[in-house]
């Protein structure tokens, strides 16, 4: 862990458990809109907040299960990261990991795209293993620097005890 705000943010990212991409998948990340999704999630897995944020529009819209549940506009990404950290700390969550699963849908319409992926969030809450199957939906735009995430949403089932 880094000894700075970046270190705190790194802890928040792992607490949020966005996505762990296996090394083979990261090495063979697709191009186009899904390349942006992989870049975002892989950066989160590494705790690289700046790169994760760069994969998103500056005013990215985010919907997530942690309060206040919705962020948009300038500073939305950093506000979301801060709220994730507060939630993880309040719920004593550790060992967080979100594993990227199957792409359910990908649709490209010129300079815009839509994608839905399955994910699994595993973690410990007060030391007890939990799992939350979920889906993430992304809206993307092809901008001058390439594909960027315009908005994304987390839709998870209620967490349950994980099988050991």
Oligomer: single chain
Residues in β-strands, percent: 35-45%
Low-confidence region ranges: 1-27
Tally the beta strands.
7
Average pLDDT:
83
Describe this structure in words.
The chain is of the alpha+beta class and 164 residues long. The chain has one domain (5-161): Nuclear Transport Factor 2, Chain: A (Roll). It contains 5 helices and 7 strands; from the N terminus they run ααααββαβββββ. The protein has helices spanning 5-16, 23-27, 33-46, 49-54, 76-90; strands at residues 56-63, 70-71, 93-109, 112-125, 128-143, 146-156, 160-161. Strands 1, 2, 3, 4, 5, 6 and 7 form a 7-stranded mixed β-sheet that branches. A hairpin with a 2-residue loop joins β3 (93-109) and β4 (112-125). α1 (5-16) packs across α5. The longest helix is centred in the middle third of the chain and has 15 residues, at 76-90. Mean pLDDT is 83; it is low at 1-27.
Key phrases:
164 residues; alpha+beta; Nuclear Transport Factor 2, Chain: A; 5 helices; 32% helix; 43% strand; disordered N terminus
Describe the secondary-structure layout.
Layout (H helix, E strand, L loop, with lengths): L4 H12 L6 H5 L5 H14 L2 H6 L1 E8 L6 E2 L4 H15 L2 E17 L2 E14 L2 E16 L2 E11 L3 E2 L3
Parallel strand pairs: 1-6
Antiparallel strand pairs: 1-2, 3-4, 4-5, 5-6, 5-7
What is this entry, summarized?
The chain is an alpha+beta fold and 164 residues long. The chain contains 5 helices and 7 strands.
């Amino acid at each position: 862990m880094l000894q700075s705000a970046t270190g705190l943010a790194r802890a928040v990212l792992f607490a949020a458990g966005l996505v762990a991409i296996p090394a083979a998948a990261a090495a063979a990340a697709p191009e186009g809109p899904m390349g942006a999704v992989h870049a975002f999630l892989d950066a989160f897995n590494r705790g690289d907040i700046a790169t994760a944020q760069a994969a998103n529009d500056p005013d990215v819209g985010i919907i997530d299960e942690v309060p206040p549940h919705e962020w948009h506009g300038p500073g939305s990404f950093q506000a979301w990261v801060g709220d994730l950290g507060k939630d993880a700390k309040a719920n004593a969550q550790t060992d967080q990991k979100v594993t990227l699963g199957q792409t359910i849908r990908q649709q490209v319409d010129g300079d815009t795209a839509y994608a839905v992926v399955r994910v699994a969030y595993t973690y410990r809450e007060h030391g007890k293993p939990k799992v939350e199957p979920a889906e993430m939906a992304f809206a993307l735009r092809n901008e001058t620097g390439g594909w960027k995430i315009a908005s994304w949403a987390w839709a998870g089932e209620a967490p349950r005890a994980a099988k050991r």
